[in-house]
Design brief:
With about 290 residues, the chain is of the alpha+beta class. The chain is built from eight helices and 15 strands. It has two domains: about 5-120, Aminotransferase class 4, branched-chain amino acid transferase, N-terminal domain (D-amino Acid Aminotransferase, Chain A, domain 1, 2-Layer Sandwich), CATH 3.30.470.10; about 130-285, D-amino Acid Aminotransferase, subunit A, domain 2 (D-amino Acid Aminotransferase, Chain A, domain 2, Alpha-Beta Barrel), CATH 3.20.10.10. The longest helix is centred in the last third of the chain and has 17 residues, at about 270-285. Bound molecules: N-(5'-phosphopyridoxyl)-D-alanine (PDD).
Length: about 290
């Protein structure tokens, strides 16, 4: 049985409890991070920590008392659960004020809830999907206007995944005003020749930690990076497409709305970026 962390305690997963009045449960008033573990070490921990702090600030949410111990808590969970490859999920909510009220509770009396748990995924970096590529459909992006804050409001992304599944695909790319914003749980890219194109940072998309690293490595490898919106039609005509996230790393996309790219086979640019990303992040892992 997993050992999980809840508000200062390491407990068997069946004993960890959060109040029914917790605002994460009642209002989706919470933020989260997913950090991957490879070879027992944390990938891009500092990037996730900094983004978490930003999400809290943007929502006027207090930091939990243990905020400065987050690295130690992550490492302890990896250790006690014997995680070689997998993910650590972290969630902070505004806590429980003991009742339901739209107004934020008094921070003197209501403390944030902090929960972490591990997900064991042996061979995470060698998933078959990375070799075969994934198929995506496009759906309208009807999420709220602050997608740069990593909140736990994931109902529409979950519905998007289900729509993709129903269509025999793996994921959905969301489209707003004719242009792709991002995938349901990842950032979206196309490749044209030596150029990598991905939507610029704004309130419209999550500022992916993997995105930042991959774009840095791409520039270092003399690839051209263009941060701008692109359409589904442009993507269907691109040389390659791919997604990035903490759990998928760099993952090739081989079909978009039924149109195959490169006859449905992953391309060399995505493969090269995946290799560089994995090599460099494993080297820098803590
Ligand atoms: N999702 N965009 C969205 C909407 C996301 O949910 C995610 C991450 C990303 C990629 O960000 P990063 O590279 O920092 O993981 C982009 C995580 C993995 C999840 O919800 O499981």
């Amino acid at each position: 049985m997993r050992t999980v962390y809840v508000n200062g305690e390491y407990l068997p997963e069946t004993e960890a409890k959060v109040s029914i009045f917790d605002r994460g449960f009642l209002m989706a008033d919470g933020v989260y991070e997913v950090t991957s573990v490879l070879g027992g070490k944390l990938i891009d921990f500092e990037g996730h920590r900094v983004r978490l702090e930003r999400s809290l600030n943007e929502l006027d949410m207090q930091k939990p008392a243990a905020f400065d111990d987050l690295l130690d808590i992550h490492r302890e969970l990896v250790r006690v659960n014997g995680i070689e490859d997998g993910m650590i999920y972290l969630q902070i909510t505004r806590g429980s004020a003991g009742d339901r009220d739209f107004a934020f509770p008094d921070t003197e009396t209501t403390t944030p809830t902090l929960v972490l748990f591990t997900q064991n995924k042996p061979g995470l970096a060698n998933s078959p999907a990375a070799k075969a590529g994934i198929k995506v459909i496009s759906i309208e992006d009807i999420r709220w206007g602050r997608r740069d804050i990593k909140t736990v409001q994931l109902l529409y992304p979950s519905m998007g995944k289900m729509m993709a599944k129903k269509a025999g695909c793996d994921d959905a790319w969301m489209v707003e005003d004719g242009a792709v914003t991002e995938g349901t749980s990842n950032n979206a890219y196309i490749v044209k020749g030596n150029r990598i194109i991905t939507r610029q940072l704004s309130h419209d998309i999550l500022h992916g930690i993997t995105r930042a690293a991959v774009l840095r490595f791409a520039r270092e490898a003399q690839m051209e990076v263009q941060e701008r919106p692109f359409t589904i039609a442009e993507a269907q005509e691109a040389d390659e497409a791919f997604i990035t996230s903490a759990s998928a790393f760099v993952m090739p996309v081989v079909e978009i709305d039924g149109v195959k790219l490169r006859d449905g086979t992953p391309g060399p640019v995505a493969a090269r970026l995946r290799e560089i990303y994995l090599d460099e992040s494993i080297k820098a892992a803590v």
